[in-house]
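Morning F.,

Quick status update on the modeling queue. The single chain you submitted on Monday has been processed. Sequence for confirmation:
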Amino acid sequence: MEIDREALINRMGGEEAVSKMDHEARADAVEDFMADKLDKEILARRAKKKYPTVAEIEEQIETRDFRRGVGKLFRATPKRLGFDDELTGVKVNRLPPMPERPTLADFFELRFNPAGHLLQSARLAKKRGDSEPVILACLLHDIGNSLIRVDHGYWGAQLTEPYVSEEATFAIRYHQALRFYADPSVNYEYPKRYYELFGEDYVPPPYIKAAYEHARNHKWYMSARKVTMNDLYAFDPSEDVSIDEFRDIIGRHFKQPKEGLGYDNTPVSHMWRSMIKPDSPL
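Structure tokens below.
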């Protein structure tokens, strides 16, 4: 940092005042002068700073490997890119804007797309002749994964509870626990894939066991069990299912708010808004 000697001396009281100072006092005075000068330069630079426009901030989205609002959600996955390992340096894409009053179908088309597993699961339930609340629960059972993966049954149930029946909410919530427990009466076995995901000696934590035992004795046990049954076999890469197939069921069993999901002032509206604008920093 350059120092204006004349300005420094004037700041210290002039030549005569400086001549009467000891070395320590002079050093302190110089340091104070430099600190003030630094602060003024920083403030001046900040005053000249050009703040970005909304469009410029939007342009920054594709330069990141995360979303400012939801971190690693709504980004490419290794599986979709053909890799088995973790992503490194992959940037997120700019998501299409949502309608002013988003519907459940809009989320499937603009945020969850292609949602192959959910759609296949619902179709499988439909083919098996399951009830419409069960079909809807199958369509929504993993919707919590759009926000968070751990305890996704609970997240999914909370996310949809204001809009679906108690039976569908129960089925979505408890399918998570029931997956870990076989039921020979309906030919449901412990998924072999879980040996790879959790380990061959894995024991579900106590809260999962408690949830299973609660669900096992509940009147809607079989509704939740059917979600697990339609969950396990809905991974066919050759089958492409459209949300259009379920619009009638959604219309009859999903309470679409007139304000649009995310803007209806429910305890979960903020969760839907997080999916509407995952790149919002606050």
